[in-house]
Amino acid sequence: MTETTGLTAAAGTTGTDLLSVRDLRAGYAGTTVLDGVDFTVPAGAVVALLGRNGVGKSTFVHTVMGMLKPYSGSVRVGGRELAGAAAHTVARSGVAIVPQGRRVFAPLTVEENLRIAARASKAPRGGGGPWTPERVYELMPRLAERRANRGDQLSGGEQQMLAIGRALLRNPRLLLLDEPSDGLAPAVIDLIAELLEGLRGEGIAAVLVEQDLHLAFRLADEVAVMQKGRIVHRSSTADFRQDRARAHSLLGVG
User: Fold this and answer.
1) Nearest CA to 132 among 173, 154, 140?
2) What are phi and psi of 24, to 5 degrees?
3) Which of 72, 60, 110 shows the shortest CA–CA distance to 231?
4) pLDDT tens for residues 167-183?
5) Beta carbons of 70 and 21 less than 8 angstroms apart
6) What pLDDT is stored for residue 2 in this prediction?
7) Cα–Cα dist 237/24, whole Å
8) Do 104 and 154 touch, CB atoms closer than 8 A?
9) Is the dihedral angle over the CA atoms 166, 168, 170, 175 positive or is it negative?
10) I want to staple 85 with a disulfide (CB 3.0 to 4.6 A). Which of 34, 71, 89, 95 is the partner?
């Protein structure tokens, strides 16, 4: 039974929701992983999607991005129905992904990775003007220093910066971040958090899938918890942090 608090994922679209997902069902080889997901992201907001391993969070991101075709349900971005659309169609609608594991092009330099992304970019959809490789370098000077290095010569944190820069060059209005802290040292996670906080003025909405709760709470306006392929809780981040009993029951944390 779905339990919601505060702003609810099951509520009707308000007119300011950039992403609106309704009764989404998806899985692999006939199995069901997402079992009727309702989920919204208001324009410009960051919503953290939390849950234990294996509950369907990455499957949700892949389905929204068009990397996995749903069995049924609705995925609307800016009012446009995209359920079942190919990934390139979803990307052209203003959605970009920072995938788990970074997945940069290892044989290519930082500069080449960014130039490829820039060639595929559309007109700006956020509020801060068009993203260019030069603007990415201004945001992340470390990448500018490493621009001639191949992807496989970068540290994990540098690869994550490159993955974020590559996504920004799509000029997205919705950013899907799948475990951005995965495999990174605490000091590097803090650096990534500062980087993502700096994007708040750009008007980009985001879905943040994250196991590091400190990072999720630092970045997110709202928290949604997934269990067994369904959203079972939604509240403001502040309310969720104050309700330790609920956090423990949903996530096993104190």
Assistant:
1) 140
2) -80, 130
3) 60
4) 999 999 999 999 999 88
5) no
6) 40
7) 24
8) yes
9) positive
10) 89
